[in-house]
Amino acid sequence: MNKITPFLWFNDNAEAAADFYLTVFPGSRKLRELRCNEAGPLPVGALLALDLELNGQPVTLLNGGPGHPLTDAFSFTVHCETQAEIDRYWTQLTADGGSEIACGWLTDKFGLTWQIVPAEIYSLVSHPAAMRAMMTMKKLDIATLQQSAKEPK
Description:
Shape: elongated
CATH superfamily of the largest domain: 2,3-Dihydroxybiphenyl 1,2-Dioxygenase, domain 1
Strand content: 25-35%
Order of helices and strands: EHEEEEHEEEHHH
CATH topology of the largest domain: 2,3-Dihydroxybiphenyl 1,2-Dioxygenase, domain 1
Number of strands: 8
CATH architecture of the largest domain: Roll
Helix content: 25-40%
Number of helices: 5
Largest sheet: 4 strands, mixed
Strand order of the largest sheet: 1-4-3-2
Number of domains: 2
């Protein structure tokens, strides 16, 4: 078990979020869950917390109730090798109420923010023309970024 694990607070839909993320990231799995007993803050049997592994990254989801909504101040980055991979994650994560933001960022239907980027994003946008190109995009286009990075500085 990792010593440091992201811990995400959901109002009451952590289980639905977990089920969704498990379909988005192949090879992911539920590790363990905690359901309330008679001493818990939720009805007996209700999910309180759930540990997942998403593409090897451990994550804990909590049904903590209202008062602490997810914010884009915390996000996950998904490094993609191909445009098809970017397109697939983008489509799945923006489906059913998710929204596009800018520069490869999106928010999914549960309010969690993601950055879907090429694996080489740092080297690409270190070039001013590629940075300018990225600033005009919502979903990132690898070919456009690569072409922009070849322009004279």
